Amino acid sequence: MFQFLLKRFGVLIPTFLGVTILTFVFVHLIPGDPVLIMAGERGLSPERHAELMAQLGLDKPLYQQYFNYLIGIFHGDLGVSFKSQIPVWEEFVPRFKATFELGMSAMVFAVFFGIPIGVLAAVKRGSIFDHTAISLSLTGYSMPIFWWGMMLVMLVSVHLNLTPVSGRVSDMLFLDDSNPLTGFMLIDTLFWGEEGDFIDAVQHLILPSIVLGTIPLAVIVRMTRSAMLEVLNEDYIRTARAKGVSRWRIIMVHALRNAMIPVVTIIGLQVGSMLAGAILTETVFSWPGIGRWLIDSLQRRDYPVVQSGVLIVATLIILVNLVIDMLYGIINPRIRHKK
Amino acid sequence: MNSKILSENVIEQDMENSAPLPMTPLQEFWCYFKKNKGAVVGLIYIIIVVFLAIFADFVAPHLPAEQFRDYLLAPPVWMEGGSWQFILGTDDVGRDILSRLIYGARLSLLIGCLVVILSLILGITLGLIAGYVGGIVDNLIMRIVDIMLALPSLILALVMVAILGPSIINAAIALAFIALPHYVRLTRAAMITELNKDYVIASKVAGAGAFRQMFINILPNCLSPLIVQASLGFSNAILDMAALGFLGMGAQPPTPEWGTMLSDVLQFVQSAWWVVTFPGLVILMTVLAFNLMGDGLRDALDPKLKQ
């Protein structure tokens, strides 16, 4: 197991360095002078311009700028936002919590519905339920989620008036934003808020979670179904049946455990696409998370935010993939011991 | 002489008795493809959309940018106040939604083609080189592919569009770029399995050069998974293009691109549902059709992958 981990870490470092090079190169390729953008409409004297360039280290040769950037990263210095003059890391954390809350509840939604539907579709293969599940999952897979979000807002929020249209909590709630308990709205409202605040936060979370969870749900249904079908054909399942193990126990204990291996992998792979989905979902629902933060700073040409934001996101995805690999080894010892 | 005729007769009889004529590859393909009902439905839908896109000038009732100032936000024909003049209603500046959707099909399909062709050419070339040359080149290419896969594709596309400047062509280039890793990986994997087969060694002995080996001998045997991926790549390209348009980083208004049509419509959810509903519905159906067709192609071309 240790060797297995060591090997995974060995691959990790060049990938991480590659991502830093990629973000560095990308941001330097974006046209426009960052100092002029910082100055905005006012304009600058050439002397002041040169001074600011020197202050930001932009007058040095590119390779030196890259090394400074890299050294900064290892010291935990991710730069300062041009717009707000706040360190990028401090801007990132609260927004990440918002996205994390949304992403987790979307994933819970997808797993909670996806696995049972997938299992049932496989068990009742060829039935109407199976066909409906497959068609719906293919439709979900093809869904332009920003449109799906707007449709849900139109039907559920506007016409049926069941959930709020946007944001994390209603404006009426007075939560101390500057010093939140945890930054996770569900927890904060539960322990801090008045009665009804928690319900309010949950109501705000429902539609965005469904929207962001739609594609993972579709993928999980498909994957669970096909993995279950494959496992149910195995010899050991027939043996268990011959031994007289109950049908329920065969499905839930014997088959599901092995079928979970590809499903866990696919759930891990969804993390990356969920971050992309978060950009769209957060735009539709005005959710103050990293997706909207990234696209706003991209449109404002706030380079430090784009550079470090993309780097953090990529690092997260690399780490999640590592965790998935490790989980994989735990669930399936065959992989751990394979040379 | 006699015996020759006799033997030919025998062969003919044998063929009649034993088996029907072998199918041509195309017939065989169609035979498998048509078993998948969803794929056939997808194909029919795509043919209709292609037809509409080509003949948009004759089919569409109005020009996509034509503004009817007297008919702002007119509802679809079946609703009260709707008219046959605007079958699916009009948007906030009085443009006919149906016409814009038909002209939008032209754009979406062209973009899909452009993205798929670009990423196929580059992806295949890189994948073949990585698989054939091996060693440092292979490692380098695959590491870059890994790095690209570590970034969420939409974020990568957004950054690339920011570099190149928002426009429909630049968005297509960005989408082709982010689709590359999949093609590179597929081609390389297929290449490596083919590389040790007898025919490759035989032609190497016969003196075939690297270029001939890669593109003429091996590539045709790697095509099946690539065709399937291309069909799915088409649907991804349409979906991502719409997402870029929605975020204001793709086609710029007033271009009748489907995603761009949805970029500022959240304000109409209360007053004019048709402005919100139809463009998205068309995106969904088109993407679904390409995904269905991709499944059918996989069943027909690559039975190994069938789940």
TrEMBL record, chain A:
InterPro entries: BPD_transp_1_N, MetI-like, MetI-like_sf
Transmembrane segments: 9-30, 102-123, 144-162, 201-221, 259-285, 305-331
Lineage: Bacteria, Pseudomonadati, Pseudomonadota, Gammaproteobacteria, Orbales
Chief location of this protein within or outside the cell: membrane
Alphabetically ordered keywords of this record: Cell membrane, Membrane, Transmembrane, Transmembrane helix, Transport
Statement: the UniProt record of this protein carries the keyword Cell membrane: yes
Protein name, per record: Dipeptide ABC transporter permease DppB
Superkingdom of source: Bacteria
Organism: Frischella japonica
UniProt subcellular location: Cell membrane
Protein family (similarity comment): Belongs to the binding-protein-dependent transport system permease family. OppBC subfamily.
Residue ranges of domain ABC transmembrane type-1 in the record: 96-328
Matching PROSITE patterns: ABC_TM1
PANTHER family to which the protein is assigned, alphabetical: DIPEPTIDE TRANSPORT SYSTEM PERMEASE PROTEIN DPPB-RELATED (PTHR43163)
Keyword Transferase recorded: no
Membrane topology of the entry: Multi-pass membrane protein
